[in-house]
Specification:
With about 270 residues, the protein is an alpha/beta fold. It has ten helices and eleven strands.
Length: about 270
């Protein structure tokens, strides 16, 4: 049994794939591991970059089209045989310190089903990577704050919505160093106890893109596992800030559909 199973999905990721894979191979060279890369039908140079690595570096699974986050990740998760399974996004640059700290935490906290660490972009801006579970109120505030940030007036309303919105995050605790329990950590970096994953089941494939990460954490908690966040270590995540996203787009519709399914499933209206 390897120490660690690593599951990465990619889709037209030529911009990120080399930096991510180089960092993973370098950071895990002292670990017993298996790495599963699931390509979701890339049409750019992603596959050629992956195939340029020495044979046996990765277990590569190629889909003929984009099957969504949950279905693609499950292709790796169902094959994972490590004590721990690490879901990590292709637009990350990881390091040994963060990996080791998460593994040590899981070894020392056997009630923890999932943990994550601090994520920040190349400019050092910390991402809200641990959160309260989605709710209609939180999502409405997210959309409203995004819209208000695009206009130059209504400062008082902006401030009100911003402060109301902060209750879904753990921003004060993230600035400290001690690990703490959270409702969920985002799927860009989830270190999962494989034994717990076998009990809770894989990602919900009804969710193409959206709250599949929260759904998994919620099911872990229903099985009496904790979800924890470790703010003392950081990996780079080249994410796009919420204020730069389009509120109305095909992907926003897919995300909304997934949220409504999540709300119905867990009765969180």
């Amino acid at each position: 049994m390897p120490d660690l199973s690593i599951v990465i999905i990619c889709w037209n990721s030529e911009r990120h794939v080399k930096a991510c894979l180089d960092s993973i191979l370098e950071s895990t060279k002292d670990f017993s591991k298996e790495i599963f890369i699931i390509d979701n039908g890339s049409s750019d140079k992603t596959l050629s970059i992956i195939r340029s690595y020495p044979e046996g570096s990765f277990n590569l699974i190629c889909n003929y089209k984009n099957l969504g986050v949950s279905k693609a990740r499950n292709m790796g998760l169902q094959k994972a045989s490590g004590k721990y399974t690490w879901i990590v996004d292709i637009d990350t640059v990881v390091n040994k310190e963060a990996i080791r700290e998460m593994l040590n935490f899981m070894d020392n906290n056997t009630d923890c089903g999932i943990c994550g660490c601090k994520l920040e972009n190349f400019q050092g801006i910390v991402q809200d990577s641990c959160r309260k579970h989605p709710s209609l109120c939180f999502k409405a505030n997210n959309v409203l704050e995004t819209l208000l940030n695009k206009i130059s007036f209504a400062k008082a309303l902006k401030n009100y919505v911003h402060h109301a919105n902060e209750s879904q995050f753990y921003r004060e605790k993230v600035q400290l160093s001690d690990p703490f329990e959270v409702e969920y950590v985002i799927g860009a970096c989830q270190m999962i106890r494989t034994e717990a994953l076998r009990k809770t089941g894989l990602l919900d494939e009804h969710i193409f893109y959206g709250p599949e990460d929260s759904d998994l954490c919620l099911r872990m908690q229903k099985e009496n596992y904790t979800v924890c966040f470790i703010p003392s270590v950081t990996i780079i995540h080249d994410y796009q800030q919420m204020t730069n996203k389009k509120v109305i787009s095909p992907m926003a519709f897919v995300h909304l559909k997934a949220l409504l399914y999540f709300f119905r499933k867990h009765k969180r209206f």
